[in-house]
């Protein structure tokens, strides 16, 4: 891939059959990529990038601040997020299977090796995953009849730049594990958004009308989600 060097920035250029320039800044380090129409010349791309340098730097600062903020050591009394609320870790040792339980505002994590951050992290992620699994099932069951849509399959995974995706042909939905940390309405909105994609794959007027119909407060929740770390211009939620 060709690289343009601009001030301290190394920007990767991807030329493909699109109509407009599209600029993205990615975590964790603020890498910059620009997609440009196949026949656009390098000078035009360079001029565009120069005009966008302040924006690029601003996004990079946000990403780096977010990376610092999201760093966790997985130690006792550390604060984490669950369903939009702050919870404190209380880590203990167990000789049996690991377990994680929410009691009041404390996440009780029992693992074999309490001093090993990786094993504490795995236990918490399992807890997040189990929680999302239950909640997503409920949301799908709630909306399927109303929308007359069938979700064949859903999954949960870690994603860097998206809250969710939908393969509308396979009717399969993927949800970002990070959503376990966000308020419950964010999860509901995201699942409905992906379910609407089964009816309408693009974000066109029909898509918006369907969102208005099935989840009328979607704009408010989307904005809430967008206030949370965002890394891409043209972020689609
Ligand atoms: Zn979408």
Summarize the structure.
With 237 residues, this protein is an alpha/beta fold.
Structure overview:
41% of the residues lie in helices and 26% in strands. The chain is α/β, with parallel strands linked by helices and 237 residues long. The strands form three sheets. A four-stranded mixed β-sheet has the order 1-2-4-3, with helices on one face. The protein is globular, with a radius of gyration of 21 Å. It starts with a strand and ends in a 10-residue tail after the last helix. 24% of the residues are buried. Mean pLDDT is 91; it is low at 230-237.
Question: How many DSSP H or I helices?
Answer: 5
Oligomer: single chain
- Major β-sheet annotation: 4 strands, mixed
How large a portion of the residues is in β-strands, by DSSP E?
25-35%
Order of helices and strands: EEEEHEEEEHEEEHHH
């Amino acid at each position: 891939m060709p690289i343009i060097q601009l001030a301290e920035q190394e920007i990767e250029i991807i030329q493909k059959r699109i109509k407009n320039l599209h600029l993205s800044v990615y975590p964790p380090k603020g890498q910059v990529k620009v997609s440009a129409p196949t026949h656009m010349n390098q000078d035009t791309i360079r001029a565009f990038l120069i005009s966008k340098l302040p924006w690029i730097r601003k996004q990079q600062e946000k990403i780096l601040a977010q990376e610092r903020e999201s760093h966790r050591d997985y130690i006792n009394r550390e604060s984490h997020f669950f369903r939009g609320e702050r919870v404190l870790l209380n880590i203990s040792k167990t000789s049996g299977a690991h377990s994680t339980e929410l009691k009041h505002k404390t996440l009780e994590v029992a693992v074999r090796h309490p001093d090993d951050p990786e094993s504490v992290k795995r236990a918490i992620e399992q807890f997040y995953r189990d929680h999302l699994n239950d909640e997503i099932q409920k949301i799908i069951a709630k909306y399927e009849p109303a929308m007359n849509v069938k979700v064949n399959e859903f999954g949960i995974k870690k994603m860097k730049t998206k809250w969710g995706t939908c393969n509308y042909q396979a009717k399969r939905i993927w949800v970002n594990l990070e959503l376990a940390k966000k308020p419950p309405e964010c999860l509901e909105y995201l699942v409905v958004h992906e379910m609407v994609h089964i009816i309408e794959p693009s974000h066109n007027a029909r898509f918006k009308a369907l969102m208005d119909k099935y989840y009328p407060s979607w704009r408010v929740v989307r904005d809430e989600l967008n206030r949370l770390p965002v890394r891409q211009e043209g972020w689609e939620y």
